[in-house]
């Protein structure tokens, strides 16, 4: 599904933040991405989400060489990826329900076909009482849960999550991890970036460890 070959990334004229990164993500796989602050985890996720192009090296996603893709083709591939950002990126003028349903609307689905699905997921992540609330009145943890629900509602082929349990209590963190695991079992490949060793220890999964811009893989 994803293959990096000797990928390097630098911003402007600075030194490389990622160096000679080589790894692959198989279909239906689950992995944690970890490492100290500043190691390059968010940069690696941005490459996976097609928000950046590498300075050097080869990235293949869903069988496509990214260096050969047009902007339109990149946009089409992004629809197969779900992502949970650290800063949530909810739209303040849309309700919680509307934010979560947005990926399905973009795909052209009729609301009648997804309304119950969205509401059920809202209850599952503990937002059943906040369905019609706007993001400015949600707490940080509630925004986190809404962002996760929006990322998974379309059952993407690849799910990327940047510190998805950073603003929730341990009990909810375990519940959200179960949501990611169930999505994985249904066929989605999952990459979770986290500092939370306790969270990673709850599930026997492959670990991608970044240190000083270099990646080490532990199966």
3D structure, described in words:
The protein is α/β, with parallel strands linked by helices and 219 residues long. The protein has a single domain, classed as P-loop containing nucleotide triphosphate hydrolases (Rossmann fold), CATH 3.40.50.300. The protein has 7 helices and 10 strands. Strands 6-7-8-3-9-10 form a 6-stranded mixed beta sheet, sandwiched between helices. Strands 2-1-4-5 form a 4-stranded antiparallel beta sheet, covered by helices on one side. A hairpin with a 2-residue loop joins β4 and β5. α3 packs across α4 and α3 packs parallel to α5. The longest helix is centred in the last third of the chain and has 16 residues. The protein is globular. The model has no long low-confidence stretch (mean pLDDT 92).
Can I get a quick summary?
The chain is of the alpha/beta class and 219 residues long. The protein contains seven helices and ten strands.
Separation of the first and last Cα atoms? 17 Å
Which residues sit in consecutive blocks of at least 5 with pLDDT less than 50? Answer: none
**Average pLDDT level:** 92
Q: Strand order, biggest sheet?
A: 6-7-8-3-9-10
Shape assignment: globular
Query: What class would the helix/strand composition place it in?
Result: alpha/beta
> Per DSSP, what share of the residues sits in E-state strands of 2 or more residues?
25-35%
Q: Briefly, what CATH class?
A: Alpha Beta
Helix content: 25-40%
Number of strands: 10
Number of domains: 1
